[in-house]
Prior knowledge:
By secondary structure, the chain is α/β, with parallel strands linked by helices.
Amino acid sequence: MKESLLGKTPSEMKEIALAAGLPAFAGKQLSEWMYGRRVHSFDGMTNLSKVGREVLKRRYELGVAEPAGVAESADGTRKYLFPVTCPVGGAWEASCVEAVVIPDADRRTLCVSSQAGCKMGCRFCMTGRQGFHGNLSAAQILNQFIAIPESGELTNAVFMGMGEPLDNFDEVMRAITVLTADWGFAWSPKRITLSTIGVLPKLRRYLDECKCHLAVSVHNPFPDERASLMPVQKAWPLRDVVDLIRQYDFTGQRRVSFEYTMFAGFNDDKRHADALVRLFSGLECRVNLIRFHRIPDFPYETSPDAVMMRFRDRLAAHGVTTTIRSSRGEDILAACGLLAGRHQQDMI
């Protein structure tokens, strides 16, 4: 399998250019073609010699691959399906991942995947039910930005798609570097949010090395109840995650939010709201309440709107900034992993 140029830094591009018999400055030209102009073929790199382009073709691929399918919602949300091949246990495994474009007024947010499947095993997550099929490379992550028709319209990105981003730390950070570097997409870190269930060893590195926003999946403030949904609670307790976050400054441009999916009769009463108030006391943060998209063989439904509003108002009354996130794309297998899971079954 050929190595991809997508995801390479300018210094790496320079070495690639020299090895192909091109001048050193061709490395900068390669970066411009990949990230500035987002070219889809070597033939489009018209300021490189034809001989050099042929050498590059033999040795590398760009890493840009069109989606295999798309589902469009009545509300304008689009979910793209990308076939991927990932290394797993010394072998290569074919799978597929999703990327979702969410329009909202003048914003176009891309929800991007970082893994094929997931190891974390959250009971309410379709991606986790698929098992783990490999880490995406930086090229496969960035391809979700480049290969879609809305590529030039994107205003924001959230690493909230398939997989746990911090479980694929190095490739996710390489992708974020390309997105935020002056020689790359030149995005402000404020345009990017990474969502995690709380992988503590890598979370500290992320907070030390990256200025992008952070979102943490909570879903229940009580350890035993959270563990019944999220096995990660046993390895990295939520309290330890919040204690780590308290060591960092979120009063400036970088923000932290806590994601809380509402399950009727399980985590939506006064007791849970008051526990969240205690957990986040004194922390500059936001809580996002999320309607649950029903998945097969899971016992809970989403909380009624009236319950969610009471829950929001109780948190807000105690000084915790809280919003109810709009539900999007319910008519196109909205829960993350449903479309990819169906396609995966068709491949078997």
